[in-house]
């Protein structure tokens, strides 16, 4: 068995990643179960895992012009959507025998603990998977920013951005067949080449705090463990 390269990680999952491609259902239980099993696998290697889930499969508050809903109001709706995803992820993890805690950046004491940084760290030290829901608790931000912020706060070694593509490419691989994947890339190169790894706020937070990012395909079972073992899966930004 390989030794894990990272001791404490923050896994960022987009809301859409919980959804089957092309489906209108917000969740695909098979996908959530696969994610839960992969997360379980790395906790068994002794890795401390925190998870931030997005909400895009249910609601995004960004587009005031289309929705007619004031931006800040819609953003709070989006944050509540992340809570639903966090609860789904928690249910699946617990079902397969993983101890979890769900912490919310918006008070919802019947279903989640409030976000308390030191308590989150304590849970991680005890081997519990901590799910951070409701983003940063503030409108005008994204869950990528929540992921970067929480990762920095809990002193994670790395942020793992689980997506449906296997890394960062020179161009959009679906449009350009000559596009190639970067194995490693610097923060600065991402900015100069206009590669959108995360939104700028989230990305800057990582860069300023020297928090490395790995973008990888979370939908391939076992890939998360390969990332943890440092096997070159995905793209490392540092
Ligand atoms: N959101 C917010 N503040 C945050 C995090 C999220 O206002 O700190 C809102 C925002 O409206 C966003 C929605 O929640 O569109 C869902 O989050 P996001 O779009 O980041 O989800 P993902 O794309 O990862 O599924």
UniProtKB/TrEMBL annotation:
Residues 7-217 form the Aspartate/glutamate/uridylate kinase domain. Signal peptide: none annotated. It is found in: Cytoplasm. Its EC number is 2.7.4.22. Pathway: Pyrimidine metabolism; CTP biosynthesis via de novo pathway; UDP from UMP (UMPK route): step 1/1. Gene3D superfamilies: Acetylglutamate kinase-like (3.40.1160.10). Its main location: cytoplasm. The keyword Cytoplasm applies. It catalyses: UMP + ATP = UDP + ADP. ATP binds at residues 12-15, 56, 60, 163, 169, 172. It holds the Pfam family AA_kinase. One of its GO terms (cellular component) is cytoplasm. The keyword Hydrolase does not apply. GO terms for molecular function: ATP binding; UMP kinase activity. UMP binds at residues 55, 75, 136-143. Inhibited by UTP. Belongs to the UMP kinase family. Catalyzes the reversible phosphorylation of UMP to UDP. Homohexamer. This is Uridylate kinase. It comes from Rhizosphaericola mali.
């Amino acid at each position: 068995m390989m030794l894990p390269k990272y001791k404490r990680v923050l896994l960022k999952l987009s809301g859409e990643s919980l959804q089957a491609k092309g489906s209108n259902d917000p969740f695909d239980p098979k996908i959530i179960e696969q994610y839960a099993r992969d997360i379980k696998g790395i906790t068994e290697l002794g890795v401390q895992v925190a998870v931030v889930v997005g909400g895009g499969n249910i609601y995004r508050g960004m587009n005031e012009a289309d929705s007619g809903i004031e931006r800040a109001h819609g953003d709070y709706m989006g944050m509540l959507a992340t809570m639903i995803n966090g609860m789904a992820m928690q249910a699946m993890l617990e079902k397969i025998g993983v101890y979890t805690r769900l912490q919310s950046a918006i008070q919802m004491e019947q279903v989640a603990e409030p976000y308390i940084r030191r308590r989150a760290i304590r849970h991680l030290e005890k081997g519990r998977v901590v799910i951070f829901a409701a983003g940063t608790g503030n409108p005008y931000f994204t869950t990528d920013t929540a992921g970067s912020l929480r990762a920095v706060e809990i002193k994670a070694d790395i942020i793992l951005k689980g997506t449906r593509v296997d890394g960062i490419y020179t161009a959009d691989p679906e449009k350009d067949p000559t596009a190639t994947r970067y194995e490693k890339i610097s923060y600065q190169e991402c900015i100069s080449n206009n590669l959108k790894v995360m939104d700028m706020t989230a990305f800057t937070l990582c860069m300023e705090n020297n928090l490395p990012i790995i973008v990888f395909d979370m939908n391939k079972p076992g890939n998360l463990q390969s990332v943890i073992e440092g096997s070159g899966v995905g793209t490392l930004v540092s």
